[in-house]
Amino acid sequence: MEKLGRKRSEKSRDAVLQATRELVTESGFTHVTIEKIAARAHVGKPTIYRWWQSKNAILAECVLGGEVLPAVDETSASEIHTSASEWFRAVLGYVDENAALLRGLVAAAYEDPEIAAQLRAHLGDPIEAALIEWAGGAGRETPLAGELSPHALAQLLFGAILYRLAPTLGATDASDVEMFDVLIARLHTQ
Amino acid sequence: MEKLGRKRSEKSRDAVLQATRELVTESGFTHVTIEKIAARAHVGKPTIYRWWQSKNAILAECVLGGEVLPAVDETSASEIHTSASEWFRAVLGYVDENAALLRGLVAAAYEDPEIAAQLRAHLGDPIEAALIEWAGGAGRETPLAGELSPHALAQLLFGAILYRLAPTLGATDASDVEMFDVLIARLHTQ
Amino acid sequence: MEKLGRKRSEKSRDAVLQATRELVTESGFTHVTIEKIAARAHVGKPTIYRWWQSKNAILAECVLGGEVLPAVDETSASEIHTSASEWFRAVLGYVDENAALLRGLVAAAYEDPEIAAQLRAHLGDPIEAALIEWAGGAGRETPLAGELSPHALAQLLFGAILYRLAPTLGATDASDVEMFDVLIARLHTQ
Amino acid sequence: MEKLGRKRSEKSRDAVLQATRELVTESGFTHVTIEKIAARAHVGKPTIYRWWQSKNAILAECVLGGEVLPAVDETSASEIHTSASEWFRAVLGYVDENAALLRGLVAAAYEDPEIAAQLRAHLGDPIEAALIEWAGGAGRETPLAGELSPHALAQLLFGAILYRLAPTLGATDASDVEMFDVLIARLHTQ
DNA sequence: ATCTAAGCGAGACGGTACGTCAAGTCTTGTT
DNA sequence: AACAAGACTTGACGTACCGTCTCGCTTAGAT
């Protein structure tokens, strides 16, 4: 038995995501409503509810929809610090570009574990994986005596991103990158 | 010209704060409404709007109302690490005790700069002040070569608290304390 | 361009009007609130505000919604008095049957010209038209010397209805009909 | 035991009545609130509630407070029509001067029997008494065959006043006076 | 000449209803 | 069967007034 009826309209999907991006950027996630999204996207509300569970889910798909973070290149040990530093700069670049959207998503994550899980999957886990890779693979996951494990360092970096995203709290200057450079240096020192 | 009219009812004030604490703990900040607070506190809605600007403001007063963080004791240099470690443990204890309320407050901070400023004033600034104190006073505020400044370290610790508060993201285990111990060791090492 | 979307629910419309009729009869128009109407009719407040401008407008539609007054039969000149007397008795019957609703509507008319206009259109104008018909048509509209014009008589009868509706003021006995009989006799005398 | 404490402040009383008169004239009785009266009169709300039962009661005292209608002069029979006509003109003059206040009072009367009773006592009863006087005293109260009794005529005139007060409904022209002249002529004819 | 009880302006209180906004569901007709 | 449009019930919003209740402060007869 094959499926009957019309296929899902990609045009509507894209219009919804685009409208959401615009509205969040313009007025902040709090002031975005499903009704405004539907109106801006020329889409019926039932269409939205058919495909997304909540306003949070639309936002998550906006931010984390495609490929989010760059892959880690395999590099020689001598270039690790340079490569890692560049990689984290790219991460921060992505964060800054999507600051308004991510801010809303982070706010949502504090009340909705589902969103928190998606944030972890698309942001936290890749960071930790990259650090483990640089630290020398899974075998080195256990914390070094008196030093930070890749896991702990990932937490720290994720926290730094959360801090940077908070309005007023975090400046958007380069201090985070320098912090990271100092910390990453600890990873391999001995 | 003296103050005329009836005085503000402290009973109502306390009832509102207590009701908010209960409701946030029971169902999460998102599901708390002004109407439910008013009903639970046996208080009229206008009374709430007379004294608080928003639901966020009530929450902020709940969490940050009294004395929040312990003061830093003056200690001898030899005891710095012990003392700092204990102090940060106390901070985390406060955070864990008020986790549900703080989670809501952090979520609000991501959309409301006013709340963000209060969070910084009551949590971030005391942490930074303590670190500066331990680092040897204002004269040592500038970052040490290859090390973390007290300011950067405060950002890192605040970020760690944000991470710990996020549902699913942060575990409530002792790892943050250990992270802190490692980092604080860097402050004075040279 | 055709009409899109869902049609207006006649069920809701009828429920609102019925609930209003009941509530006005039970407790008087002053104590009727939109919220009570909505609750009794099991209808949302926005639905009410979508279709009616005010509480007054709902009441007006309740009272003046359908066919209000009986038409005037064409009758031979000899039967005019009998016929007119019967017709006015029917008018008073309608007034008495809807006394509670009309009382509220009249009260509203004194503060809201819109309601006053509707009252005139559905009650005053038909009365005047009937009197003109009995007086011999439009050609006889001008006042007879020393007598009452149909227009003046209509004002008098409308005033008598207002008086009868006022609580305490007007008795609900038959005196109005007799007054009318005396007055109508003046219309055609000579 | 005599009364202790301060006497009622006549200044406050007058200020309340004056403020009410102004507010009703400016915006209509519906939009007048106790709070606005208190503010305009520089008077506390409890002072108002201490002396008046309701907003209606304040209005009633505004309109019907002093001497309302002129007394009927004793006149010779030959001058009755002239005298009665002048008297009713004076009544209509009073009505027109206080139209805005009376309109509110009439609206209130339709929902509040207390107000209706006051209206009858200060307006309806004097009219009926005057008509009885002109008709030749109490002995002539019974209706004349085929004519209107003074009681019926009083109802008619009161109704005409109600009609004249209603917005849109009644014009403020002289037609009511002429109507009255025609009717009063019926009183004594035979 | 005090004392003291009531009246006073001001304004906060617990409530009720307002009119609006948005949520998520249901209906209608079109593609 | 999925779509755009839009009416539906529900429930919370923030505001306006209600009528009551403190607040200190007059004010004036009783002591």
UniProtKB/TrEMBL annotation, chains A, B, C, D:
<dbReference type="GO" id="GO:0000976">
    <property type="term" value="F:transcription cis-regulatory region binding"/>
</dbReference>
<dbReference type="Pfam" id="PF00440">
    <property type="entry name" value="TetR_N"/>
</dbReference>
<dbReference type="GO" id="GO:0003700">
    <property type="term" value="F:DNA-binding transcription factor activity"/>
</dbReference>
<dbReference type="InterPro" id="IPR036271">
    <property type="entry name" value="Tet_transcr_reg_TetR-rel_C_sf"/>
</dbReference>
<dbReference type="InterPro" id="IPR050109">
    <property type="entry name" value="HTH-type_TetR-like_transc_reg"/>
</dbReference>
<keyword id="KW-0804">Transcription</keyword>
<dbReference type="Pfam" id="PF16859">
    <property type="entry name" value="TetR_C_11"/>
</dbReference>
<feature type="DNA-binding region" description="H-T-H motif">
    <location>
        <begin position="33"/>
        <end position="52"/>
    </location>
</feature>
<dbReference type="InterPro" id="IPR011075">
    <property type="entry name" value="TetR_C"/>
</dbReference>
<dbReference type="InterPro" id="IPR001647">
    <property type="entry name" value="HTH_TetR"/>
</dbReference>
<keyword id="KW-0805">Transcription regulation</keyword>
<keyword id="KW-0238">DNA-binding</keyword>
<dbReference type="InterPro" id="IPR009057">
    <property type="entry name" value="Homeodomain-like_sf"/>
</dbReference>
<feature type="domain" description="HTH tetR-type">
    <location>
        <begin position="10"/>
        <end position="70"/>
    </location>
</feature>
<protein>
    <submittedName>
        <fullName>TetR family transcriptional regulator</fullName>
    </submittedName>
</protein>
